[in-house]
Design goal:
heterodimer, A: alpha+beta, three-stranded antiparallel beta sheet, 9 helices, 24% strand, B: alpha+beta, four-stranded antiparallel beta sheet, 3 helices, 8 strands, elongated
Chain lengths: 362, 136
Amino acid sequence: MLGVRGDVINSIFYVIVIAALIMAGCSSEEESLELHQQQLFTFGTLVDISLVTDDPEQAQLAIDMVSAEFDRLHTDWHPWQDGALGQVNKQLSSLEFFSTSPSVISLLQQSNLLSEKSAGLFNPAIGKLIKLWQFDQLENEQFQFTMPSAEAVQSLLQQKPQMQDIVINNDTMQIKSNNPAVSLDFGAFAKGVAIERVIKILKANKIQNALINAGGDLKVIGTKNERPWRIGIKNPDQAQNPSAPAVIAAIKLHSDESLFTSGNYERFFEFQGKHYHHIIDPRTGYPGRGTRSVTVLTKDAGLADAASTALFIAGPEQWPEIARKMGIEYVMLISTDDRIYLSPAMAERIELLTDVEPEIIR
Amino acid sequence: MLNQKSSVSKATIKPADIIIIISACFLTVWLYSVFWFNDSLPGDAVSLQIQIADNPPENYSLDTDRVIKIEGTIGDSLIEIKQGKARFTHSPCRNKFCLFHGWLSTAGDTTACLPNRISISLKGKTSAYDAIAGGK
């Protein structure tokens, strides 16, 4: 009887040892640092913050600072509300010098240069055109979209609003416009610059590993547990075709890299069965044609933001030329006829998860 | 101690031993099935996380098909869970970008209704991606 009980105890002992071994073999890789994630409704979008650190208090402090900075910049840089840029837009038509905030001057200076490099395809001076397309009303629940008249579009185009119309006096922190048609809208730039700023805040707070994803546009620093950050790029097909795969491509990002996408499926009005998306071509005054989405990889998030818009407008024919001018090496463009164009550098890094054969453009 | 006891008994197989051996086999098979065959692949979502405004997110299992009603800032949104996927099926907002997003099917995929301040994300044990880029 004692022997049977001994066998029982022995058997249970061995079973437990085997079970422990099986469990050890099956458990996933051990994570030494912890992942802290938080979602914020800010900057007119959903911002996902992922921090990898061993200090949870530091992580929460950093997340709070990032949240406050996004809120502050959103107010400062909103083109039609009462913040600093809203005030600027009210005073520009006076065509006289007036004072503004350093954060607006810094946006103006950076975007001046980028607008020139993009051959005017990135043009934050067309705020009036964007307003004509009523994208200032996109968040207004009661609003009904109406097609802008061709005359109104043409009349704004003929006045050629551009960044060169703005004169900046650095000593007095004053600016003026030489063109009454100029109104500023940094919708294609502000998010990138804001991400760049919050990344600086994270680094100043000793956060070394982070991913900031603001509505699908993102920048990373450091690593995710000593491997590169793995990013899936959304399939633009999925909006119309629910059975399409969610992700069209995958890419690994290294420290300080930004990945920005401009797509015609992001923000749009539906009017009489047609989609009118938010990326307005400054040459025609109408939503850009020929492109469904452009994804740009580069270090600076502000540059990535401006370039993704400029290359979207440039379209399937002209994008390689504009990418060169703007110093962008990594580009993927998906056209409205479902072709996938890659720059040679992008072709080497991206993993396409589709049967479409990409065209590599030099 | 244990070894001493077992060395006292004769090395003959008794019915209890057979029961133990059989149960050990079953336990091993069961452990494999739990930790190996049923283990989700990277990218397989196991739960749906719903966040309302700045409240702490809540997790919902993807195992049961159902429709969840969530009260947001401007009204009620409906979220459908079906066959391990999730999507918005009704929203009080005007633009319905949340509906246009369609099904979330991969861990890490997220969409939101900004006017109603509701976000939904699929979570996995191990995600294939740390983030999904390109439009919310």
